[in-house]
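To the wet lab folks,

You asked to see what we're planning to order before we commit. Fair enough. Below is the target structure as tokens, and below that is the sequence we designed to fit it. If anything looks off to you, flag it before the synthesis order goes out.
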């Protein structure tokens, strides 16, 4: 057999170095494409990245995944980064509330080693943040959720909150359970969320497999995984990674062209637009997808992260969720950050669906959150704050409102060889790391089907290639 020459190999340009672009580039390179990956920033990873603040290495936000995120877990394995994350052996979420009189109520949402839905029964039965009647209401709603057909397009037309009210849910059940989970995963309250997306999250995460909801987190800065490990593997496969490089125009033809800001033109058989929804929309040639203007209707939802370094150790667990407080989730980031002050502790607050707070000055956020931490975390009132800062992702996710599904385009466009990827595309998932990786798979699969290329044999983990 004659060896295939370089000139005969298909070429691909992937625009965007987030998780979607990394995934698409890896898959195409494995299928013997000559791939160029363009990223405007000086690093890979998209919206899941790290940066330095003095001696600290800071993640821009607290990113978690679940065991059911099989595509993202497959990417970790593919990058040789599985050892860089921790995955709970069983779901265990500490949930704290503090009454105005200072009375503390501490509960846990955790699973047992029983089949669905019995795996959560004991935890719910003893959940102190709900009374017996509300616990029964939650069970009835969970059974109704399990019966929903995720393929039914009508689910996208109504809000999760409206559906919960029809199932007899109270403000207490919404606050103590449905929004506790939903705001963190969907970046919107039940009232603001499409039932289709909420049902997907709860059915997949809590009602599909006993271990589906076990929580995973990086135990190193995200840049070690999404930039360092990804860049090393991409370059090993021969992908040309060009950082600080912006695409200015897509020129469709028999062979596509990607014109860069400096005027250079890159020719390619396949182009994958894997950036954010607005940057992809700006680069799409006219008529690339039906009702192209619909992408602008997706909107955005912000995420705020509040970072506090105390002079002493206050939190003895990796994380907890708070009820009845502006604080949503608190994570101990000390070991991840390289904090050099002996005995000090670095806590990060992850705050989703915070449209009213995302642009507040740091001084106002300090006045809002430090007293709440002093109320929630014993000893914080007496501790010295060594550092306080915030990170803001104003366009962290698309807005998962009712009517979202028709606004999310598929990977294929009406221009052969021009593909879309990103957590905002039609993956069926909310805007998560899992959705981003799945979109990269979808774009690469579509490109490979067109060129007739085949991926290497499955590596044995059942997830890469899927």
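Sequence we intend to order:
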């Amino acid at each position: 057999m004659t060896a295939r020459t370089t000139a005969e190999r298909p070429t691909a340009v992937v625009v965007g170095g987030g998780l979607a672009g990394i995934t698409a580039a890896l898959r195409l390179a494995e299928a013997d494409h000559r791939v160029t990956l363009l990223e405007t920033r000086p690093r890979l990873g998209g919206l899941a990245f790290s940066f330095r603040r003095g001696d600290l290495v800071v993640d821009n936000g607290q990113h978690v995944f679940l065991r059911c995120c099989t595509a993202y877990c497959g990417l970790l394995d593919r990058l040789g980064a599985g050892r860089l994350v921790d995955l709970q052996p069983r779901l265990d979420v500490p949930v704290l509330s503090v009454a105005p009189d200072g009375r503390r109520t501490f509960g846990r949402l955790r699973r047992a080693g029983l089949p669905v839905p019995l795996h959560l029964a004991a935890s719910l039965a003893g959940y102190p943040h709900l009374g017996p009647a509300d616990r029964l209401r939650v069970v009835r709603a969970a059974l109704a959720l399990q019966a929903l057909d995720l393929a039914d397009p009508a689910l996208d037309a109504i809000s999760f909150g409206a559906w919960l009210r029809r199932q007899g849910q109270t403000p207490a059940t919404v606050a103590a359970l449905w929004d506790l989970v939903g705001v963190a995963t969907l970046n919107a309250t039940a009232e603001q969320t499409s039932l289709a997306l909420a049902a997907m999250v709860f059915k997949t995460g809590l009602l599909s497999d006993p271990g589906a909801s076990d929580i995973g987190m990086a135990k190193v800065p995200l840049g070690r995984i999404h930039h360092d490990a990804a860049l090393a593997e991409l370059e090993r496969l021969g992908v040309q990674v060009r950082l600080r490089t912006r695409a200015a125009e897509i020129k469709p033809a028999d062979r596509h062209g990607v014109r860069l800001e400096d005027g250079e033109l890159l020719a390619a058989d396949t182009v994958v637009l894997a950036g954010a929804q607005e940057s992809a929309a700006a680069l799409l040639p006219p008529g690339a997808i039906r009702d192209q203007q619909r992408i602008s209707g997706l909107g955005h939802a912000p995420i705020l992260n509040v970072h506090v370094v105390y002079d002493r150790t206050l939190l003895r667990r990796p994380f907890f969720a708070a009820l009845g407080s502006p604080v949503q989730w608190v994570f101990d980031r000390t070991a991840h950050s390289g904090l050099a002050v002996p005995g000090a502790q670095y806590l990060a607050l992850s705050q989703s669906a915070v449209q009213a707070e995302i642009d507040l000055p740091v001084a106002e956020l300090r006045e809002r959150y430090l007293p709440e931490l002093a109320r929630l975390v014993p000893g914080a009132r007496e501790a010295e704050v060594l550092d306080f800062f915030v990170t803001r992702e104003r366009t962290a996710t698309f807005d998962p409102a009712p009517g979202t599904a028709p606004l999310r385009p598929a990977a294929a466009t009406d221009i052969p060889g021009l593909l879309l990827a990103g957590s905002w595309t039609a993956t069926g998932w909310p805007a998560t790391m899992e959705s981003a990786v799945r979109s990269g798979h979808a774009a690469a699969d579509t490109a490979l089907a067109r060129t007739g290329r085949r991926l290497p044999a499955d590596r044995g983990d059942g997830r890469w290639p899927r």
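Structural context that might help your review: Residues 6-49+221-298+402-451 form a domain with the FAD/NAD(P)-binding domain fold (CATH 3.50.50.60). The first helix runs from residue 19 to 30.

Thanks,
Computational group
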